Amino acid sequence: MLDKDVRIYVAGHHGLVGSAIWNNLKQRGYHNLIGRSHKELDLLDPIAVREFFDQERPQAVVLAAAFVGGIMANLRYRADFIYRNLQIQQNVIGESWKHGVEKLLFLGSTCIYPGEAPQPMPEDCLLTSALEYTNEPYAIAKIAGLKMCESFNLQYGTNYIAVMPTNLYGPNDNFHLENSHVLPAMIRKIHLAQCLSQDNWEDVRKDIGLRPVTMKQTGLRVDGNSSQQDILSVLASYGIEKGRVTLWGTGSPMREFLWSEEMADASVHCLLNVDFKDVVDNTEMKVNRDGIREIRNCHINVGTGHQISIRECAEKIAAETGFQGELCWDRTKPDGTMLKMTDVSKLHRLGWHHTIEIDEGIHRLYQWYLKGICINHKESSQA
Predict the structure, then answer these.
(1) Are the C-beta atoms of 315 and 327 separated by less than 8 Å?
(2) What is the pTM of this model?
(3) Per-residue model confidence as pLDDT tens digits over 197-227
(4) Is omega for the bond preceding 120 within 30 degrees of 0, making it cis?
(5) pLDDT tens-digit series, residues 318-332
(6) Of 70, 190, 191, 344, which one's alpha carbon is 20 to 30 angstroms from that of 293?
(7) How far apart are CA 86 and CA 145, in angstroms?
(8) Which of the listed CATH numbers 3.40.50.1820, 3.30.10.20, 3.40.50.720, 3.10.180.10 matches domain 8-172+256-306+342-357+374-382?
(9) Residues acting as catalytic residues
(10) β-pair type (213-214, 221-222)
(11) Any bridge partners for residue 212, and if so which?
């Protein structure tokens, strides 16, 4: 257990993941937290990162910063996803080692697993077959990050823990209509369609005033002061119409969703209570033909162990928002991996279980969204 006075640097403390971890640490009494915005510290800049570590001397590090986005963003910005994430990880993990950081927590993603992984996905199915194509560059970067942690532990005796959260949703998420994660994008689309159905232009203008929308085909950008005609035209280009919402894919893929604040609680639990030795002891290791014990797959899945179809999720969101219009599906858009549920038995053995189910989570997120808080409205971002 880390002392309450320990200096903890949370990289990415404004994002969905980092902000939840920051708040969880504060609630547990950790008061010596260090955070920097992207403008204050560019994690892609190795000199700036080194100078930051020289000055602040953190004793523990949470690496929650990443260049993130949804399926379409992953498809379009493949070079950005692999280059930026590798660079961030290289800089932060490398400087953590050079500066003698006592404990590091690396946040990855369950997209590291093969597209045809067994269900539920155990940690040891990593690198057993091909990755899902849509987010392959991002997945490779995250695999490199967890392998960096594992390798530093084995070579230098460090205590770096890697956790792989499933699909997250919660406060401070990005609600961009195309490049955000699937659940917040659906919440915003269905909310706007409901407002149009009720001729509630006050809330439509409030929404796009907070998060302006640009039509990709023409570059037309609308905000709360734009004409009704322009707003309707731009929203229709994203499948948002009065009485009708068009969502990506077939709606058939199954997804596991984890409330971000629960992810934070699990992650902080691992930071405070789990050492690399504990992970090794709870991971089945093989002895190869040379008699060497192969220590690998020492990361930890973080999830619920339950899944729901995208279609069912959309129907729950429609019920929550009161939308009674038509939910349509654009089969020209990619579905991504059809099945994706984690095996969380290792996490359970290490002492943590989830409590918030999807219905409660959707209700909480929609109520948060209605408050009109906007922190992370970006097409794709260093979270």
Answers:
(1) yes
(2) 0.89
(3) 999 999 999 999 999 999 988 999 999 999 9
(4) yes
(5) 999 999 999 999 999
(6) 344
(7) 7
(8) 3.40.50.720
(9) 138
(10) antiparallel
(11) none
